[in-house]
Specification:
79 residues; mainly alpha; 42% helix; elongated
Length: 79
Amino acid sequence: MRKEYDFLKLKPAFPRYLKMLKKPITMRLDIGVFNYFKKISKTMGIPYQSLINYILREYAQHEIKPSANWDLLTKKRVI
């Protein structure tokens, strides 16, 4: 072991997997949506979180916008 080291010669280290980090979040899904992905994930042999992430990534990469009319989904019913 040396008595002194020249740290100025070191190259900066960049984490190779930094871009692959995932953000833990909480989502509220309809029970039917949850059951659908759970069922498909079992037949495919992958975790349902990975399946949902894969589908959302495909939407984001292809810039697909949902076809739902948000105004109709958010209107409150008057009783």
